[in-house]
Structures are given as structure tokens and as C-alpha cells.
Amino acid sequence: MKGRFDLSAYDNGTQLLMHLVVLLACLVASALVCFGLVAVSAPFVLLQWIGFFTLAKFVYFVVAYVLFGGSFIDPLEQMYEDRRNRR
Length: 87
Known about the structure:
This protein is mostly helical.
């Protein structure tokens, strides 16, 4: 699946960096939703953390597939394959 941006022109390290920037943005957005918009009360703190990581993971995978056509695992696998093939 091709995304909106063609990352094939970039090396694997740059691709990974782009994915990490998107992941960080998704973590910040999820934190604002889970902790900023919902009042923190003692019994629900664990649920907020679970919701935060679930929402961040879901948003990241949706955004990564729309923008890049894959997740950060793809450049990591490619880096591993390149290293293995060099030996």
C-alpha cells in the first residue's frame, strides 16, 4: 500500500525518524485527549493510562498507513534485512 508520501527516496534511518516524529505527535495528541479533557480521579487513573496507550497506538497506525503506507516496523525490518545481507 502506498501512502501520500513516498519514503523510498529516503534511507532507512530517515524513514524511521519520520515515523518517530509522527508517533510522538500521536502520543501528545492522545495525552491531551486522555488527560487534558478528562478530569483525573483516583479510581480512573489506570483506565486513563490504558486508554492513552490504546488511543495513541490506534491513531499512530492509522496516520502512518495514510501518510507512509506502513508502520515504523517496515523501515526497521528493512534495516535488519540490509544488515543481514551485507554479511
